[in-house]
Amino acid sequence: MQNFFLIGLIGNLGSGKSTVRQMLEQLGARGVDADALAHVAVRRGSPTWRAIVKAFGAEVLAYDGHIDRRKLGARVFAEPDALRTLESIVHPAVSALTKDWLRETTQPVVVLEAIKLVEAGMHQWCDALWVVTCAPETQIERVMRARQISAEDARARLAAQGSFEEKLHLADIVIDNSGDVGATRTQVARVWKTIRPETAHDKSEWLWNIPRVEAPPAPTPPATPPAPGVEILPPPPTPVTPPSTPAPPVAATVPPEFDVRRTRRSDLDALAAAIAKREHRRQPLSHEEALKRFGSGGYRIAMGEGRIIAFAAWEAENLVATVRETWAESDHVALLVLPRLFTLIEEEARALLCEVVVIFLEIAAPLYIIEMARVSGYQPTELSGLHPVWQPIVRDRIRSGERILAKRLRAEMITRPV
């Protein structure tokens, strides 16, 4: 496994953790949002979903069977015991997904954003713990705006998170996000320059269950020769103890091997089968249709066990890269593979001087596809929220019923069509 420098990022609701995480991502870190992984963990029909419904009843469900976070939040934030029950259900699932995600990362610096990172014990594996703070009234205003709740409800939610003083004592870095974005960015950039990935702690024991190997003891320096006339007595004999049976070695979990790359002509049959799965066809695409899609789609794929398990089609024009047909055969595959697939597309888009990557997702796209896009730094936006130079490209390509998620690739902008 490749080791990495792990930044644990914590802060109460409304403090601006996500803002700081996104700044770190723009500087080169790979970010993961535990709240986004929680969405994946509680997907409809999952074991975590069933445990929540069993504990709190069907009244916390929306009309389509998904967990209604607003209903559930109103329930647990009013009852401390209910909140503890919910956390005991969700935290283990999120921790498992987090470890799965971290095992697959290839970035030298990773930032993990999680409100309950300390409570879950994950802070002990972090190389640095960053705490984001904010003026209380600013926090309340942000929570009210983001959650569409009253000031009273916002204060109740903040109170339910408990005192933050103990966590401040654990912090290696404190970022004050009370001011404007520029002031926060300056703090983050200053600390970023001090990060040394080569100093990262070994995380094999945590992620792979590989026992930590202790360093051998330092050799004993040679004894000083005795003074003339001084007799040195031999040491007492060491008692002999019978050998004990060695403990069985702890097996390491070996992740499946995924080959993330662009499609080749030899992948045509596998691509036809994968597209058919995505489009719920009973039969794979015909050779002619698959060849047509292959030639026009710009597909990037993840191969595993001899088949395509995830793919996305992309193209670039006039500084804008657009992605559509994003698919993974399961939520677990999406968690492990889609961030790497998006990274491949972003690297190729940067080489073509693209300034932004825009993902088009159908309204009916699986929730785990949306969440993995968010984990990879893509933010939902409207066409009007894009730069005016990008808008015509996106307008020409968006289809009816599609939503937009965008990620800016570079701080400096060319902003002139090539």
Task: Give a written overview of the molecule.
- This protein has 418 residues and is an alpha/beta fold.
- The protein folds into two domains: 5-208, 3-Layer(aba) Sandwich (Rossmann fold); 259-408, 3-Layer(aba) Sandwich (Aminopeptidase), CATH 3.40.630.
- Helices cover 40% and strands 17% of the residues.
- It has helices spanning 17-27, 34-41, 47-56, 69-76, 80-104, 136-147, 151-160, 165-170, 181-192, 204-208, 268-278, 287-297, 331-351, 367-375, 391-397, and strands at 5-10, 30-33, 109-113, 128-133, 173-176, 259-262, 299-304, 307-317, 320-328, 356-362, 379-381, 402-408.
- Strands 6-7-8-9-10-12-11 form a seven-stranded mixed β-sheet, sandwiched between helices. Strands 2-3-1-4-5 form a five-stranded parallel β-sheet, sandwiched between helices.
- Strand 9 (320-328), helix 13 and strand 10 form a beta-alpha-beta unit.
- The longest helix has 25 residues, at 80-104.
- It is globular.
- The two termini are 41 Å apart.
Name its key features.
418 residues, alpha/beta, Rossmann fold, Aminopeptidase, 2 domains, seven-stranded mixed β-sheet, five-stranded parallel β-sheet, 12 strands, 40% helix, 17% strand, globular
* Number of structurally distinct domains: 2
Helix residue percentage: 25-40%
How much of the residues is beta strand, in percent?
Answer: 15-25%
Overall geometric form: globular
Q: How do the strands of the widest beta sheet line up side by side?
A: 6-7-8-9-10-12-11
> What is the rounded distance between the termini?
41 Å
Structural class by SSE content: alpha/beta
CATH 4th-level superfamily of the largest domain: P-loop containing nucleotide triphosphate hydrolases
